[in-house]
Amino acid sequence: MKKMIKISTLTVTASLLAVAAQADKWSDQFPHIKNTGDIAGECSYESMSKKDYSGQKLTINTHAVPVIGEPTALHAEQFSKLTGAEVNVIHTPAGDLYSKAMVPFQAGQAPYDIVFGFSNFIRDWKQYLQPVPAKYVNMRQMQDVTQSHIDVNSWNGEMIQFPIDGDRHYLKYRKDVIDNPEYQAKYKAETGNELRIPRTWKEYGEMATFFNGWDWDNDGELEYGSAEVMKKDDLMFAAFFSRSVAYAKNPRVPGGYFFDLESMEPLINGPGFVEALTDWVEATKYVPPGGINFGLGDEINSFGGGQTLFSFSWDDAFVAAMQDDSPIKNKVGAAPLPGSDRVWNRTSGSWENEYNQAPYIVWGWTAAVAKASKKQDVAFDYLCFFANDANHQADIAIGRFGVNPFKKSDFDADIYVERQGWDPEIAQQYADTLMEMEEGSTNRVFPLRVPGVFQFNSAIATGTSKALAGQLSPQEALDEVAAEWKKIVKRIGADTVREAYAVGVALEDNL
Amino acid sequence: MNFKHKYLFLLPGLLVLLGILIFPIGFTVRLSLSSWDSFFPGLDFIGLENYTRLFTDDPRFWESFQRLSFLSVTTVFLQYTIGFALAHIVWKEILFQRFFRVLFLIPMMTTPVIMTVIWKTVFHESLGPVNDFFSLFGVTPLWLSSEALSKVTVIIVEVWQWTPFMFLLLLAGLLSLPKEPFLAASIDGAGPIRKFVYVTFPLMAPISIGAIIIRLIEASKIMDTVYVLTSGGPGTSSETSSFYIFIKGLREFQFGYSAALSLTYLIIMIISLTIIAKMLVKLMIRS
Question: How many domains are contained in chain B?
Answer without folding.
Answer: 1
